[in-house]
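Sequence in, structure out. First:
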Amino acid sequence: MASKKPIFTTYEQKTKDHTFIRFIKPHKTKGKMSLKTIFKTVNDFFTTTIPKSYKKTILVLLWKDLNHPYAGGGIIYAFKQAETWKKKGYRVIFLTPNFKGSKPFEMINNIEVYRVGSKYSSYILFPLWYFFHFRNKIDYIVDIENGIPYFSPLFSRKPKILLVLHIQREILFRELPFYIAWFPYILEIYLMPLVYRKTKIITISNATKNDLMSLGFKEENITISYCGFDSTLSKSRKKTDKPTIFYIGRIEKYKRVDHLIKLFEKLNNPEAELIIGGSGRQIETIKTLTENSKCKNQIKILGRISEEKKFELYGTSWLCVSASAKEGWGMTVIEGNACNTPTLAYNIPGFNESIANGINGILVENDEEFIATMNKILKKEITFGDLPAYAEKYTWENSSLVTLNVMTNGESKK
């Protein structure tokens, strides 16, 4: 006999323009549940109204959200784009996995964020969630790839775009054990081009565009939408009295923050300070490395910091640096430029587009050149022009409108 008691506890959350009803706490039930009860439970798990004031609704499938402790540049990119779409009259919904301490629903920067499943189970649950809750409520899908996309063409015929920040193939074997890395490698290199062969692609650099074309994607289906910067936070500030070097970004193996610390040690400048901001799976390793460094009193590990603090450090630092082995483009370069600070990095795809060598930063080929150039910049033997003026052409609004135009097939311009 089916239980008549409610299977979930419900709560209602109201916002300015719509009401959400979530069923989040399951109850123990006696006996068997009928198929009708099961279906109703699943179907009613999520109810939302869509105000007539919105043009259309965009569903974004993303592997992390902005409040995730390891959120990086790719997450910022997605949310900055969405904020502009919202201002243009579109309703934007993010579907992301849960993380420790997260809520099933949250409003982030006036964007709706729903969390379902875990890092891995989300690949199974997202299609189910779409089928039961979004299939008849959304108009466009933004499928964001981070090694493994969500393969939305397999479960939805809605107009969609695939957003690719950079191809992960060589990074996978640097970050993951071989017995795990081969699986996402095969999905990205072989299955993704097959499933998305007719899908419009948005990427952030020519480097990633070329990588995509090497996988078999057609050039006419790929559009570049560069990163921007937050003009409300960026401004020139008084530089610190002592030379300050700033790294901001994910703390992962491929970012080579450990290598950056070793380069700083070889600088042999007792007056200089290295500030490291950001979080990631290698944060504890970096902390241990710093504790054992001969320059430990000159290195600060801040962990994750706010956007306000980040732009403050951009402005007061003398130089931004990165020893990364792979970049989609280099959003931190333009953010630093907007605050009148140049960037020093290796000459790799991505950085060789965001950095115009000698104009808004310096690209180097090896460690010796990196250390020598860092020393020259701190001694002011190398100077730069109007860096904020250089950054002005890269805005989130311009970037977001490019993406929106491709997604809506020009409809957004009407």
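Second:
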Amino acid sequence: MNSIRFRKLNISFFGLLFFIAGVLSGCDQSGKKEAGVPGKTPATSSTMEVQKPHLVSDLILGRKVFEAKNCNQCHSIFERERKIGPKLKSSRFYGSFLDIFSLLWNHAPAMAVHMRREVLERPTFSTTELNELVSFLYMLPYLGQPGDARRGEALLESKSCFKCHSLGKKGRRDGTPLDSLAVYQSPVVLLQRMWNHGPEMIGRMATTGTSIPTFSGNEIADIFAALTKETPEKGKKVFLGVGHAENGEKLFTDKGCIKCHSIFGKGGKQAPDLGKTVSQSNVTKLTTQIWNHIGRMTQIYHQEKMQWPSFAETEMNDMIVFLYSLNYLDKPGDAAKGEKIFAQKKCIECHFKTGEDKQKLLRAIKAINTTQFAAELWNHTSAMEAAMLTQGVPWPEMTGAQLRDVMAFLQKQ
């Protein structure tokens, strides 16, 4: 993180989770072994468990894999300490499962050099471990950038919030106080409160001739920073965690969202397809998009005489992480492109060298999912690197899109 303020925010949320993960993991923090000691035998297609690709929003599980596989020996995330590997940035959205895996894949040769130098064991992954690790990396940008409390106070004034609300000694004296939000360590609570009171707030604005405020950029985070500026003592803080995408998916149907909104074409057609409109949206952007849309939504609910759905704090938490999870799964690849890539990257020279080699690979690939495909690839890196060095063939770097296309090609055979 670039600022001390951002570090404090992370300590209050992700930092707590990571500390717990470190305690629970119980792994050797050095990760080193004696030179010459063989590593574990990589999982094979015959022993690998079937783990369907899905976003694991429990950061503790992914952090445990990150440490158990010694990733933290070379890579930092929120630490200010500079390490030999690239720092994993929370300001960057890395993409879908295979988009993220492609970064690990392309990094494999350089990583092997550093691990040999540090006498670290090259990691292998079960499908569960790989899914948890990639989920952890996918979740890094979730909270977004920290807000600026001073700008937030100015926004509360300019957006006319103080006409009805108070914060400390500012705002309307007999207005609804916002001070109680200071105990919460998740900005999702701000959206939950705004959503539940949305129709009432908009009704009052209409009677007073006040326009419904809209937000952009990091303004919602700025307002939340202003509301939590005077954070209570430690014992009174409320941590909601990150939420559970599976619960959020169920809520999306139960709360009636699916009646108007669709997810990648499945659902209602009256409102935007959220599978397309929430791409790369962190908590701040999602909150902004939902609130800016709320005026139109209240009109539709009023016209259709539908009851406005309310959310508990944990429900809104689950809903937001579900929306964030929508771009984790990979779309189908292009088999025709995959055939060309398979040849260009010289994969064909080893894997299709004989008819027997070809059929062996196709049988192994035919019915597996993306998580299994990625785990098979990764656990094959040691043998593959040795063979490629012997033959003088360069490492086949690929993007996530190219991996999707190659998988589509192999499974079409």
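Remark: Residues 4-25 form the longest helix (22 residues).
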